[in-house]
């Protein structure tokens, strides 16, 4: 059995790991065009500070990632975020704590009294009958009202998807929320019913000692795959025996190929083999996002919490700030502090790809305006992702359904990345497990 995996992000690596469990002796070749593994899971050390270029970690309330950590022998490097870092903030006109109890919600200045009453009225909003896809904005306006949507959902969707409520499909991005309305008639009704059934703690943010790259490196070893870094797959062809993969150095035949690359990268590889699939893949757009990390040798601000997200109505250049050194203890050397500022996304797409000097200036201005920090950072880190996060736009679900229908005619070919069924690490790991299971099932018939 010869398997090729294109892409050494978490989707490619987790798929390789699960396939290895089923096939201890298979030849698994994993191609990664960059010189580092991990894709959007990448940690950079700068003078003792650890900055995440992408993902910060994952929530512990879904079992698959924790299971993968255990199976791959990485429990000793798993770390839990500080409890004190649970406090989150939203910046609308000033910095306000995200209310975490009904009492705090009643007292928050983030919504007017009318806005709060409208949220409470969600209980009486009838469930939608149609099944057609809907934007998060339309869903939010209908169920919890305009104010709640424009403040809370707006900030949340910027933080998770670097998106905006009127350009994201609620069905594709938040299927669990849509399910609450469908199954229980509303969000409050659903949450109450679920609370009765599934009493238990919510998720805690988890990561790894010295950042996510430590896990990626260990996971890569545990796959026992032939990992070919700095090796881009440049061509994919189909033949009677399977698929022929070409790199600049070599051409090789495989029984199974998994495209764990981004949608537009997979489209390029599929352009000869299936132009209609390639066209569909190219319609999945990506938001640009940049991360600016600052390390401070001394900082008066206590960074007491997880960080903040801004609302569109705040008209700030930054999407938010993560208070890194408060979230995980080892992100900054003793007594030093660090933050990461997010810039761009769909809200301010044109800002993400500005020059490094402009990004630093925007980040400094942003933290001054939102947190009152005026100090000059001692250490700076910058990561620009021109195509950072896939947009799950209206119609995403049907598009993906069509893609996977197309795929059925290409026996032995699989698509698995964050472009289809969820962008979070938990989604990527669960979908990789499913992808590996499907490959094993298909090949055992
Ligand atoms: C700034 C940012 C912050 C985030 N924060 C979080 C977070 O806190 N929590 C969370 O759960 N998720 C977060 N995410 C999302 C999560 O990190 C990603 O969805 C996930 O890492 C994507 O993994 P992937 O393997 O599907 O894709 P990628 O990581 O994009 O990996 C694809 C890989 O394929 C390689 N490749 C592409 N084409 C070829 C080719 N032809 N030949 C060889 N190699 C190829 C690429 O170089 C890349 O390494 C964040 C994302 C970003 C951008």
CATH topology of the largest domain: FAD/NAD(P)-binding domain
Computed structural class:
alpha/beta
Give helix % range: 25-40%
Q: What's the number of extended β-strand segments?
A: 20
Mean pLDDT: 96
CATH architecture of the largest domain: 3-Layer(bba) Sandwich
| Domain tally | 3
Task: Tell me what you see in this structure.
The protein folds into three domains: 152 residues, FAD/NAD(P)-binding domain; 86 residues, protoporphyrinogen ix oxidase, domain 3 (Orthogonal Bundle); 105 residues, Polyamine Oxidase, Chain A, domain 2, CATH 3.90.660. Helix 12 packs antiparallel against helix 16. It has 445 residues and is α/β, with parallel strands linked by helices. The strands form five sheets. Strands 8-7-16-17-18-15-19 form a seven-stranded mixed beta sheet. Strands 10-2-1-14-20 form a five-stranded parallel beta sheet, covered by helices on one side. Strand 11 and strand 12 form a beta hairpin. The structure holds flavin-adenine dinucleotide.
